[in-house]
Amino acid sequence: MRRTSSRPFLVAAVVTTGALALTACGTPPWESAATDRATRDPGRASASASASGSPSTAASTPSARPGGDLVDGALSRTVRAGDLVVGVRYWSTLPLQDWTAGSAKPLSMSVSTRGGSDVRLVRAAVETSALARDGSDLPPGGQPGAQTDPSGFAVSRPQSWSGTFVLGPTDDRTATLRVVVTLVFTEGSGDSRTQQTATDVLSVGLPTDG
């Protein structure tokens, strides 16, 4: 596994006691994960966001069934960041039936890009919002946070970045957890280096009583 940087890129989560190590390599980690069955559903494997980073309508609609966008255990999405085509793979090491309102819920992702030159991921951020069964807003609970690294990680395919965010406990009435993912990239070199942003939204239904 070839690392693209010798410096660690860490994401802090307010619900954990330590840092979460993130890696960049040429072989995405989900290839050996138990969630491979999700790749057999190509209809769930693509959604897009605009060049400005706005999430797609389909991605931002709350799901009515438990599991939602992660019901198959893993999900592939394609979003855009300016001229970059960004591939994002999501999965969790915690079974979706254990994604209760009061639990700490690990969300892993892997990111790679097509297009541009010398593309590097310099910021990854996750924010959550909670919805009750009737769609009303609830207190969002602990926020996973973000980390910025000016030098970032090379993510032009076949290279990729991967990391895990821990989504904190929310109100006990939470039926749907909406997760907003923001990815900031730089591309080019020297004075001509530019910045592009991609945003994606996941909707995950949580187990509820009744």
In short:
This protein is an all-beta fold and 210 residues long. Helices cover 2% and strands 43% of the residues. The strands form two sheets. It has a six-stranded antiparallel beta sheet with strand order 1-2-9-5-4-3, with no helix packed on it.
CATH architecture name: Sandwich
Helix content: under 10%
Helix and strand content put the structural class at mainly beta
Sequence of secondary-structure elements: EEHEEEEEEEEE
| Strand line-up of the largest beta sheet | 1-2-9-5-4-3
Mean pLDDT: 75
Tell me the number of helical segments per DSSP (H or I, 4 or more residues long).
1
Give the CATH class.
Answer: Mainly Beta
Describe this structure in words.
There is one protein chain. This protein is mostly beta strands and 210 residues long. It has a single domain (9-26, 45-50, 62-205), classed as Sandwich (Immunoglobulin-like). It has one helix at residues 57-60; strands at 9-11, 20-25, 74-81, 84-91, 105-114, 120-131, 137-138, 145-154, 160-167, 176-187, 194-205. It has a six-stranded antiparallel sheet with strand order 1-2-9-5-4-3, with no helix packed on it. A hairpin with a 5-residue loop joins β6 and β7 (137-138). The longest helix is centred in the first third of the chain and has 4 residues, at 57-60. Residues 1-65 have low confidence and may be disordered. Keywords: Signal.
